Amino acid sequence: MLATLHRPGQGTLSVMGHDLPDKAQLVRPHLGYLGHDPLVYLDLTALQNLELFADLYGVPDPRDRIEELLDHVGLLARSFEPVRTFSRGMAQRLGIARLLLHRPTLLLLDEPTSGLDAAGAALLDRVVADGASVVIVTHDVERAVHVADRVMVLRAGRVRLEQATAGLDPAAFRAEYEREIA
Hints:
The protein is of the alpha/beta class. It has 7 helices and 7 strands, in the order ββαβαααβαβαββα. A 3-stranded parallel beta sheet has the order 3-4-5, with helices on one face. Strands 1-2 form a two-stranded antiparallel sheet. A two-stranded antiparallel sheet has the order 6-7. Strand 6 (150-155) and strand 7 (158-164) form a beta hairpin. The two termini are 25 Å apart.
């Protein structure tokens, strides 16, 4: 719903001061979304994918930005290869580049480390630390405590636990998390 892909079943939802879904077109340019699926086209090359998304987002003079991101995610040498030849982790890295292409101010991440090796997950952690507001949905409690300012546990659509991560022991939070979801 925050990504403007689904309508709320009930209640109201506001993102960046705009009511959804009525004002979704005002929110979308500021959003970056990455989930389990990197949302890239398998028959296009890495470069073609980012050129397409740059065009869709109206990124001015995208060539330098695309090269910078492909280098950042470790795919510059594979720029001209079709994504269907990539490993799952490489496709997810391309998804990270797609996520950042238009410099969104709100990142929505749904299990974003799916398919990533340790280096790819660390890359994503650095992205999260780069200054945009970030909402992460994950079962990786330790990573959440490490990269987030606040953590929240939802169960059946209700907030069961919410707290700041400063000084929070990841193991103790995992125990609390497991109690809340049981």
